[in-house]
């Protein structure tokens, strides 16, 4: 028989105490603020979806990582490992929503994968997406949202946006005769930052490329830097085909728009950025810390075919989803993580049981002013109430006693300075504003 003391939290899952939740709420509120400034609207999504939704286009690796099972109705279902397919399904099913559709959400996800620094089995992401708009202007806005998010978190100097276009990379590789096993090659490129150069080359050879072809892939995917420096060099590599030239011109236009948003300095071109999920169709990007000691904070890009693949109308889409785990690591490294401690605006201390009712009335009047107020629930004496008020970081103490009440007053104590003041009960409204 399993005893209670033998049960422990599952590996890769987290729990948060009140102080930790206060810090996390500040972070998510900052992301929400950015979304609302750009006109994104909040949605809610289910935690459980049919397994087939993720089998259509998410890629075999992701499907293998799902927490999936048969429900009591015999249906194959899964806890959602990411939200893009869910959002695509929602767009397909809600055809009358005005386009472009700009949605955001704060959601929890589950993936059964090896846990490591910044990678967990249960995690949160804040999702931003634009549906029904295929222009480069939409690409620029979603990247501007990403930079604004970094600024709101204080990370604009500690992280950068690395941008690529999968169409350009694939066309360049094809001109060198690298056409076989393209999907496998792209998956290896996606993992390049995790490998040494020798490991990268060996992986490519194992995928069927010659040593010469592997070196070409390595050289091409090393092309990285600011737009001004990289675009001329990239132009020399772009094949003479309509699709490739159009993708290159689109990057040039993106550069111009990012400059208009005043975020170009936060962005670089990086031909090794692929995004492993199978549904990305063009521009992709990831956010990395500038010191390079953390995995990507988030990734995103354009996925123009996903809704049509799910049986809907052809609907272009672009978006990204920052994850909470790596953002927390980076903010703590940069000493930007909010204080993890609870705060109480007012603690109403009753001197004796005879004034308990009046204490509750005072507490109610203060809560009506949108203050965070606590009262004694345990019949504690004066000293113990004071101790508890200190432990919950109370800013102001309202002491309710018989003598003060006879004069229609209470004592207000500043818990930082220790100063006390007699305040008329009628003056409490607005006193703490």
How is the secondary structure organized here?
Blueprint lengths: L17 H20 L3 E2 L5 E3 L1 H4 L4 H5 L2 E4 L5 E4 L4 H10 L7 E10 L11 E10 L4 H17 L6 E7 H10 L6 H9 L6 H10 L4 H10 L3 E2 L1 H11 L4 H19 L6 E4 L12 E7 L8 E5 L3 H4 L7 E6 L1 H10 L10 E7 L5 H12 L5 E3 L6 H10 L2 E7 L1 H5 L2 E6 L5 E5 L9
Parallel strand pairs: 1-5, 7-9, 13-14, 13-15
Antiparallel strand pairs: 2-4, 3-4, 5-6, 6-12, 7-10, 8-9, 10-11, 11-12, 15-16, 16-17
Helix pairs in contact: 1-5, 5-11, 6-11, 8-9
Query: Strand sequence of the main sheet, in spatial order?
Result: 1-5-6-12-11-10-7-9-8
Count of extended strands: 17
Task: Return the CATH class of the largest domain.
Answer: Alpha Beta
CATH-defined superfamily of the largest domain: Bira Bifunctional Protein, Domain 2
Provide a count of the helices.
Answer: 16
Q: Gap between N and C termini, in Å?
A: 56 Å
Quaternary structure annotation: single chain
From the 3D coordinates, which CATH architecture of the largest domain would you assign? 2-Layer Sandwich
Helix percent band: 25-40%
> Any idea how many domains?
3
Report the portion of residues in β strands: 15-25%
Write down the Rg. Answer: 28 Å
Shape descriptor: elongated
**CATH fold node name of the largest domain:** BirA Bifunctional Protein, domain 2
Mean pLDDT over the full residue set: 92
């Amino acid at each position: 028989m399993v005893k209670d003391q033998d049960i422990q939290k599952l590996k890769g899952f987290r729990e948060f105490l009140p102080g930790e939740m206060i810090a996390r709420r500040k972070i998510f509120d900052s992301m929400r603020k950015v979304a609302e400034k750009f006109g994104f609207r909040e949605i809610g999504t289910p935690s459980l979806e049919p397994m087939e939704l993720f089998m259509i286009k998410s890629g075999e690796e992701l499907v293998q990582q799902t927490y999936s099972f048969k429900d009591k109705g015999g249906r194959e279902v899964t806890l959602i490992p990411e939200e893009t397919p869910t959002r695509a399904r929602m767009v397909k099913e809600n055809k009358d929503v005005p386009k472009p559709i700009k949605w955001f959400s704060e959601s929890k996800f589950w993936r059964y994968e090896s846990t490591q620094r910044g990678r967990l089995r249960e995690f949160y992401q804040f999702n931003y997406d634009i549906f029904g708009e295929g222009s480069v202007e939409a690409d620029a806005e979603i990247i501007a949202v990403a930079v604004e998010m970094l600024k709101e978190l204080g990370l604009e100097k500690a992280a950068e946006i690395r941008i690529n276009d999968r169409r350009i990379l694939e066309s360049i590789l094809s001109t060198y005769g690298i056409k076989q096993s393209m999907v496998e090659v792209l998956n290896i490129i996606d993992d390049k930052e995790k490998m040494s150069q020798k490991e990268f080359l060996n992986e490519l050879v194992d995928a069927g490329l010659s040593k010469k072809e592997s070196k070409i892939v390595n050289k091409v995917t090393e092309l990285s830097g600011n737009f001004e420096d990289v675009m001329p060099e990239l132009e020399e590599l772009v094949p003479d085909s309509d699709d490739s030239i159009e993708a290159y011109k689109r990057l040039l236009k993106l550069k111009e728009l990012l400059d208009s948003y005043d975020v170009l300095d936060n962005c670089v071109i990086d031909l090794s950025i692929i995004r492993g999920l199978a549904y990305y169709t063009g521009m992709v990007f990831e956010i990395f810390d500038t010191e390079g000691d953390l995995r990507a904070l988030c990734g995103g890009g354009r996925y123009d075919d996903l809704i049509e693949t799910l049986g809907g109308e052809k609907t272009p889409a672009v978006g990204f989803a920052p994850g909470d785990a790596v953002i927390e690591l980076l903010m703590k490294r940069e000493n930007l993580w909010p204080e993890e401690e609870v705060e109480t605006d007012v603690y109403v201390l009753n001197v004796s049981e005879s004034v308990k009712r009046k204490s509750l009335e005072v507490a109610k009047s203060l809560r009506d002013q949108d203050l965070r107020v606590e009262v004694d629930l345990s019949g504690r004496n004066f000293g113990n109430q004071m101790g508890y008020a200190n432990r919950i970081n109370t800013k102001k103490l309202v002491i309710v006693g018989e003598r003060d009440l006879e004069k229609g007053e209470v004592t207000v104590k500043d818990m930082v300075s220790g100063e006390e003041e007699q305040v008329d009960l009628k003056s409490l409204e607005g006193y703490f504003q």
